[in-house]
Amino acid sequence: MNIDEKTRYDRQVRLWGKSTQQKLRATNVLINGVASAAGEVAKNLALAGVRSIVLNDAGALEPADFYNNFLVQGSSVGDARGKVSSQKLKQLNPFVSVNLVDGDGGVSLDEGPSLRVTVSRIQSTSDALREVGSPRNAAADILLLVADLGRTTLGLFLYRKSGASLSEQLNALLFANTAARPAAFQRALLLMRMRECQEEEHFFKRLVFANTIVTQLGLALLTREDVEFAAGATAAKLCSDAIDATVAGGVFAQLIIHAVGAAGEGEYAWAVSDCSGAATVQVGGAIP
């Protein structure tokens, strides 16, 4: 690092040490979907001083973006989300290389000794399974799947260095031992599974579907109100705000930094942020 970088990163080096900062400086990040908590992760990793960030988001800004995405403030509805986000990230830290890729084709991270981190925004379990199998994420040493579910945000952390494959880790998180996880995790998982049921279906049919998922996965910590809320939840109702995104994005970024400091060996497999009342965050250990 040159003298300007040392000055910029001095306070955080005191927090997590020179070794972690050097590893961050050799870390390349791919962001698939720069919205809400995923956008906050991108912001925090840029401020932390990663080597490069590639944004993969060809979408246009919608009104909801201005409620939960720091990177797009000052822009207008219809502007390219990826483009305005990349401009903001470059302003936040000129020492980080920020590039933009439109669409899914040709997205890759630099090869070599650097660590590769991918952050993908998802909404459902099928999205999660698709991201794990996507060629654009094949090189990732750390894969973070971010599910924005209104006041609840779930992060699933998968590690290349784990004894299990990325697919095996994901299946263990989504389908195994779910009864032992806290209520906030169970609530998030049910909301993700509800994406499999059409929003246009009658509420009673969606309620039956929700109760079936609760029984199948043993989500016994959920209340009747939780299940009824999930049955009535639509994409419009599950719009997060700035507090949701900031809390979740800050926690997720810190867990990534922790894993980078450990050379890609993660200690945590999931984190869930719940801002429905007082903001709470819970984390769970990595899948062996």
TrEMBL record:
What's the domain of life for this entry?
A: Eukaryota
Task: Write out the GO cellular component annotations.
Answer: cytoplasm
Positions of the THIF-type NAD/FAD binding fold domain = 9-102
InterPro entries listed in its UniProt record: ThiF/MoeB/HesA, ThiF_NAD_FAD-bd, Ubiquitin-activating_enz
What is a single molecular function from GO for this protein? NEDD8 activating enzyme activity
The record ties this protein, via SUPFAM superfamilies, to:
Activating enzymes of the ubiquitin-like proteins (SSF69572)
Q: Which GO biological process annotations does it have? A: protein neddylation
| Residue runs in coiled coils | none
Taken from the record, one Pfam family name reads: ThiF
This chain belongs to which protein, by name? Putative ubiquitin activating enzyme
**Source organism:** Trypanosoma vivax (strain Y486)
